[in-house]
């Protein structure tokens, strides 16, 4: 009986997730008790650095931004023995006062199968929206897949950005586009860089879609691009160049993303970022290990709990410049006033002298 219920639940989950087109991110089975010993204490700082980042997958523009390195452990079984074997993931963030920018970097042999995203690398970012949304179980709403609604799961909303390669040309921009935004969803039919929200792994929806109805004002607010260090790009790739580099070359994957700090979401489907405040985030990575397609649940994450992301205000360096400028202005005004006064005095003195000593003859310089 229990099995029948489980199978039915899985089927419902599969049906619910079918229109979302996330590949196989639905089987999310865990074995045993969940435990998490996360004491990394790492905080990611998004400093105010306007005008330095181009979202093109190339990361030279990030070289002066400090990042944090995280070991990648299986999301459902964060056991150090099962760490992703090609290296840690580096995560960096900045903002320019309007947009937040994220960079994810991870070593991995180049692999690309056109049109098959489960045979390509893939990344996701997840943010807490509501305060009761846990990292574990993507918000942690305890409802069954068919019982999740924005009422039964209220308070468990998480915001997810998932970029699956497979139809995304390296160096090009994907994510929000006029076609999908006109439909009012977080979809991206061109590059599969989608904007989602979730209450738990079985209750995930593209922004704008949901069990209680659709919201035609929703948008895909993300933009992003990818690159691999083995790629050599002379004049821009086209799809016919795929797989863009030779298979199996050692190197590093780069992913870059941007999103406005605020969005027009009004159903708790997007996290909102505020300068001077913090958000909670996580990052995930899928990779076709040994050429085997990845499973949706077979992803690695940077930590088994939320990581804090601080949006730093732009005041620190700017204020000191302004503070130095002000006394300088005062000094300028003073010296101007001083010189005007001195000038007036000299005219007055000159006038008095010429008046009192009007008979004084001219004294040649060399006689003084
Ligand atoms: C990359 O390729 C090397 C050599 O072929 C192999 O030893 C290594 O396991 C591969 N790394 C990954 C992450 O697949
Ligand atoms: C979070 O949970 C607590 C305790 O269950 C509850 O009092 C609070 O209202 C919840 N917050 C939200 C935003 O749902
Ligand atoms: C919401 O949109 C989806 C996908 O476009 C559609 O299948 C579904 O019927 C819509 N639901 C409602 C209640 O309109
Ligand atoms: C739930 O979603 C529906 C449809 O998008 C919306 O009309 C309703 O206001 C939402 N309720 C809450 C509590 O967000
Ligand atoms: C693979 O490349 C990374 C940097 O891109 C490097 O750190 C690593 O040592 C390389 N591994 C091998 C086996 O060459």
From TrEMBL:
Keyword tags: Electron transport, Heme, Iron, Membrane, Metal-binding, Signal, Transmembrane, Transmembrane helix, Transport
One GO MF term attached to the UniProt entry: metal ion binding
The signal peptide stretch is 1-27
Matches recorded under Pfam families: EB_dh
| Keyword Membrane included in the entry's annotation | yes
Bilayer-spanning residue ranges? 330-349
Highest taxon listed in the record's lineage: Eukaryota
Please state every residue range assigned to the domain named Cytochrome c-552/DMSO reductase-like haem-binding.
59-301
- Record protein name field: Cytochrome c-552/DMSO reductase-like haem-binding domain-containing protein
